[in-house]
Amino acid sequence: MAQYEKFDYDVLVIGAGGAGLRAAIEASAANVSVGLICKSLLGKAHTVMAEGGMAAAMANVDERDNWKVHFADTMRGGQYINNYRMAQLHAQEAPSRVRELEEWGAVFDRTKDSGLISQRNFGGHKFPRLAHVGDRTGLELIRTLQDHGIHQGIEVHMEHTVASLLKDGDRVTGAVAYDRERGRFKLFQAKAVVLATGGTGRAFKITSNSWEYTGDGHALAYEAGADLIDMECIQFHPTGMVWPLSVRGILVTEGVRGEGGILRNSEGKRFMFDDIPDLYKHQTADNEEEGWRYTQNDREARRPPELLTRDHVARCIMREVRDGRGSPHGGVYLDIAWIKERLPNAEEHIKRKLPSMYHQFKQLANVDITKEVMEVGPTTHYTMGGIKVDADSQMSAVPGLFAAGECAAGLHGANRLGGNSLSDLVVFGKRAGEYAANFAQEKGSGTVDEGQVEQVINRALAPLGREGGELPYAIQAELQEKMQDLVGIVRREEEMQQVLGIVAELKERAAHVSAPGNREYNPGWHTAIDLDNLLTVSEAIALSAIERKESRGGHFREDYPDKDAAHFANVNVRVRKGEDGRMQVDQVPMAELPEDLQAIIDEESK
Amino acid sequence: MSEARFKIWRGEGEEGRFEEYSAQIDEGMVVLDAVHQIQAEKAPDLACRWNCKAGKCGSCSAEINGMPKLMCMTRMDQLPEGETITIEPMKAFPHIRDLVTDVSWNYRAKKKIKKFKPRAPDTEDGSWSMSQDDVDRVQEFRKCIECFLCQDVCHVLREHDKHEEFAGPQLMVYTAALEMHPLDVEDRREDLKEEQGIGYCNITKCCTKVCPEEITITDNAIIPLKERVVDKFYDPIGKLLKIFSSADDSSKE
Ligand SMILES: Cc1cc2nc3c(=O)[nH]c(=O)nc-3n(C[C@H](O)[C@H](O)[C@H](O)COP(=O)(O)OP(=O)(O)OC[C@H]3O[C@@H](n4cnc5c(N)ncnc54)[C@H](O)[C@@H]3O)c2cc1C
Ligand code: SF4
Ligand code: SF4
Ligand code: FES
Description:
A: alpha+beta, 18 strands, globular, binds flavin-adenine dinucleotide, binds iron/sulfur cluster, binds FE2/S2 (inorganic) cluster
């Protein structure tokens, strides 16, 4: 018999980033018992790394902004395969969620005249909309929620990894986890479970994401019978560091471009003016002067092409590099130092607005961004796809299983706008917590099958006991390399088919890995367990990308370079576990947009 | 490419020893890269924490050549070339395994500090008006990434083991952020003296020197907090007033 400790909660929240913390706070406010589990220490989740800001149409800087404009921007950015209801709720509720953070102690940067929360420009947002704190907005968000949350009676289990969900018939009844520090197993029985596990970026080699992003929540939900949608939609952020090699992929915030940073190729040309998509022509500056004025909050100016959506900017950079106009290490140049031609104390200004970028380049690349240009290139950044949820309640197809934040799908469609994630976390984290608490109160407990628990533990322990197998690191590295090359920014049918074969082979190898050492804080063992999830999401990404035979947002196919307005504009690609245990992919028609929302979109695209 | 030699602390709890490894060093590599290379190739169970690899999360704290640092922000070319580099876990906390220590005390100690309590909003929609100058001061403290390196060097914790009596510099920074928050109306001065033990700090400034976020911990956080505590407890007029207003309070002094 496997040994394990037991816990019992009304609501179990898995993940302690912005979404999980916000869900836990909301659930505990409804007077139910709440357990919160996370793989890292509290406060270290991915959310801590977010830089640029969180989008909310508060209209503090430009009074023309309102939820309708934010809604339309989000839909346009997502190329209209978003869940419209989520986009609506998000735009409507984000301002209150931001103000609530201030009530809990967050200290955002202020506007000069009124002393309200200041808002900055970001790609795809028509008006300055991102509440921010220099370039460390995520730290402010997570710390505020953490410091508020620890006083709400939530029981936190940090450095615990959930290995599987448990079910009683259709509904979810809890989870099995192990404590990473000591390797002990725990059974968490729960009436409702909220997944808030973040993204899948570790499936790729060049990524801004940490070791945590192995798509655990996606895989847990999939195994439990939930649907995953839009898995082909991966966001490649245009500006990651490219040199030195060891920091390749680390993010350079879009805030640099928001503050006036420009992109140039090796010939010194501002190539972003060369290709402006029709959808955005009317909103984009056609000369450098106007672009600069926009970054300085001139309300009459249109945005510079550097602030077009991320998918587009990333592909333009790829084109420059491919055509031989790249920088020495395979990127292009990002220049913020040039603003000294326009601003009297530019150096001060840059350090003040972009302190952590200044620090990051100085420390890691020996580059002083107030004087020199940066070398940047695309990096895997965000997973738009994920667990399909009901827009209002965030419940998945599995009763009692909720999802919020990056691991849920719908809000961002085919491409996420910068700043829309942090607001997503608090808007839908709150909703998930609220509805999970309701569910727990209405439905009561299910029963836990101890046999299921035993199975999960035995499977998780297998790599530890096994001798002479391969190490998990090598398999992980091979997968990342193949995904990057074959299902990356530019995709082709044959290459993606190849990946399916590779994933099948790696799965076979992963089933025989060894993790030498014992159970205490053993990263080899942890990697072996996470590897299964990474393989599941890689398969889902490749299958979905093959299924969507068009290009849209983050999903770009060289063999189908255009959007397909007749068919794929109206469907989401779905992946789920078939009866035979194999992954199945199909297409589900999208709900038709209600007239009032359509009218908003039409009005805004004039 | 060159080769570098390392001595890394391996072991569990009280038991442990240095083990020697080597790693291939490329331009721009940081110590954490070398640790990962060793993990992937030679020591798959080598325990260390990390997340962001960009100095933002405060997970990868360790002592490199005896200096408390973030492994992800310490470049190999900043360390003396050709010499063996030692990497050890932080010393002010109980050891778990290899480079990982039990830092849970910091979380428990934080929970004892009274939470943020704002004044009523300035407008009906729940907004407050504050000037950038007012928020600048607390923003310095809110940069803290909870790496606990300052806790690690503070002799009160590291040598004298006063974890029960003294909350340490990191939590002084946390308290300063609350106390100097333009909206906060809570009073934490008595707790600072009695619970957080601010009196134990004798202003050696070692904490400030190691802070990767360059927070001026001693001058900007601890000293002003000490002054506030002194104002409350040792100012004769204040004391008289307090005796009149509350007999309970004065008995604690
Ligand atoms: C460098 C960078 C900069 C960014 N900048 C911005 C920005 O400026 N604006 C913006 O809006 N967005 C930004 N983003 C995106 C945004 O930060 C993330 O999408 C968002 O923080 C995700 O939050 P989350 O709550 O969904 O998940 P996370 O914050 O990633 O938290 C996931 C949690 O789940 C836990 N977890 C995962 N698997 C398991 C498991 N098996 N068992 C137990 N726990 C588990 C993890 O430990 C963690 O606690 C940025 C992202 C990066 C990487
Ligand atoms: S200044 Fe005070 S808190 Fe900082 S290290 Fe010295 S004694 Fe510790
Ligand atoms: S104050 Fe500085 S050294 Fe101390 S925990 Fe915070 S960031 Fe780390
Ligand atoms: S890994 Fe985040 S600070 Fe080093």
